[in-house]
Write a structure and sequence with these properties.
The chain is of the alpha+beta class. The chain has a single domain, classed as Aminoglycoside 3'-phosphotransferase, Chain: A, domain 2. The chain is 42% helix and 12% strand. A 3-stranded antiparallel sheet has the order 1-3-2, covered by helices on one side. The chain is globular.
């Protein structure tokens, strides 16, 4: 088996160098006990070469280590809401859809204001342009964005961040279960590796909600270990679907109306 994995693409306002920067940024937390990240061997706008991961088993023990390590990664922090990785100012390109990061001059003063404009409304505009959301349906999402913008759903970061005064978490940003690879390499102290990030400054609950969106092996153990290492704020379970709303709207933009019903169901309790 080859010991490298090569990803190739054609940038359209994005670059694989951005993904490489995101991986390196997340990897900065590893020496402190953060999540292992796939090693970048080389990167150009059109090609990303990584060390190949040998797929392993999602054991209970590994899941507990993942939860604790992810908490440390989040606590490494970011300078502002929507901040891109160090050295990167562009967009990420996922299946042809650009997902913007936020320049410091445009940064929101709260998580709700950031999530409303740079996630909910940004993806809603893409979904409407794609014909995946009608005008009447869009009003539901707009009401959610309005409530987010005035702080209706703002909540403290988990304990490790909150106690250290870290307001903005360093998050993976696209942490569905396929981007958490269980690693059979015995040299990996955690037993799993992060791949394919859309890393930015955000709320730690976003990564945990994304893991739950499409199902994740050993999810309950991951979350329990995370909560033990970095206690989640009161009411976090009630905010899971809110955090999932952004990726659901993004899926509407990418894949059409097959995701519209799920996105509306997630939005209505918060509208």
């Amino acid at each position: 088996m080859k010991d490298t994995f090569t990803k190739r693409g054609t940038p359209q306002g994005a670059s694989l160098e951005g993904e490489a920067a995101a991986l390196r940024w997340l990897a900065e937390a590893e020496p402190a006990g953060g999540m292992p990240v796939v090693e970048v061997l080389s990167a150009s706008p059109y090609e990303l070469v990584e060390r190949r991961i040998v797929s392993g088993t999602a054991s209970a023990a590994a899941a507990e280590r993942v939860g604790a390590a992810l908490a440390v990664t989040h606590a490494s922090g970011a300078p502002w809401w929507g901040a891109p990785p160090d050295g990167w100012q562009g967009a990420y390109l996922i299946d042809g859809s650009a997902t913007p990061t936020v320049a410091e001059r445009d940064a929101a003063g709260s998580w709700g204001a950031f999530f409303a404009e740079w996630r909910i409304m940004a993806y809603l505009r893409q979904a409407r342009d794609a014909g995946s959301v009608s005008g009447d349906e869009a009003k539901v999402f707009e009401r959610v964005a309005d409530r987010l913008a005035v702080g209706a759903y703002d909540a403290p970061q988990p304990g490790l961040l909150d106690s250290a005064g870290v307001k903005v978490a360093r998050i993976h940003g696209d942490l569905w279960s396929g981007n958490l690879m269980w690693d059979a390499d015995s040299g990996n102290h955690v037993g799993a590796v992060l791949i394919d990030p859309m890393a930015h400054g955000g709320h730690a609950e976003t990564d945990l909600a994304m893991l739950a969106l499409f199902g994740c092996q050993q999810l309950e153990r991951i979350v329990a270990a995370y909560d033990e290492a970095s206690p989640l704020a009161d009411g976090w379970r009630d905010r899971v679907r809110l955090h999932q709303l952004a990726p659901l709207l993004h899926h509407c933009a990418l894949f059409g109306r097959s995701y519209t019903r799920s996105a509306l169901a997630a939005a209505r309790p918060y509208a």
